[in-house]
Amino acid sequence: MLPSHAACIVARADDTTFGILHCRFHELWSLRMCTWMGKGNDPRYTPTTCFETFPFPAGLSPADTAHQRTEALDGGALIPAELSPLVRPLAEAIALAAQRLVTLRDAWLNPPEWTQRVPEVVPLGMERSPYPDRIVARPGFEAVVAKRTLTNLYNQRPAWLAQAHDTLDAAVASAYGWADWTAVMGDDEILRRLLAINVQRAADGAVP
């Protein structure tokens, strides 16, 4: 994929932020706030309307954690450091759920029996490559690996993927304080709650 002016990059290293941006709540907010383009009327994620207006859980917004270091939990998940005692367990639950989602997806995208890691080239003047290894198909598996894309995975949406997302959504719902959350909560109710948070923070002069 070639870089484009339309690419959106969130320069954060922690799994907590990753999990919040991959939960159902952010997806719904983005689809309601995005622009639409092309003959297929495809959704277009726009930072000013989708990201900057999204009401992150209290204490976990980019404004709250932008200047914090990250620390690793047991298992390797990363959370922002120096969180308050009230927010920290919520951030940990989101990070662990997000890490689990990524681990499951990566295992489906690049099965070890079909793929192999190849060291990246070493730039001139350096002793080792600063880049991660490339994952390439083993000989004879090129065609089947080429079909292992996130688009195809989410079109299939196997039970394990849905369950991983439900676990992530539950962790993020806890961070919002939604004790009555269930996976069958309607989209309109979720958007109503998010909008209420957004409006209240705007009235208080706070960042969403």
List the helices and strands and how they pair.
Elements: H1 15-21, H2 24-33, E1 35-37, E2 42-44, H3 47-51, H4 62-65, E3 70-72, E4 78-80, H5 88-109, E5 115-118, E6 134-137, H6 142-146, H7 150-156, H8 159-176, H9 187-204
Antiparallel strand pairs: 1-2, 3-4, 5-6
Helix pairs in contact: 1-5, 5-8
Give a structural overview.
With 208 residues, the protein is mainly alpha-helical. The chain has one domain. It is 46% helix and 10% strand. It contains nine helices and six strands; from the N terminus they run H-H-E-E-H-H-E-E-H-E-E-H-H-H-H. It has helices at 15-21, 24-33, 47-51, 62-65, 88-109, 142-146, 150-156, 159-176, 187-204; strands at 35-37, 42-44, 70-72, 78-80, 115-118, 134-137. It has a two-stranded antiparallel sheet with strand order 1-2. Strands 3-4 form a two-stranded antiparallel ribbon. Strand 1 (35-37) and strand 2 (42-44) form a beta hairpin. Helix 1 crosses helix 5 and helix 5 runs antiparallel to helix 8. The mean pLDDT is 92.
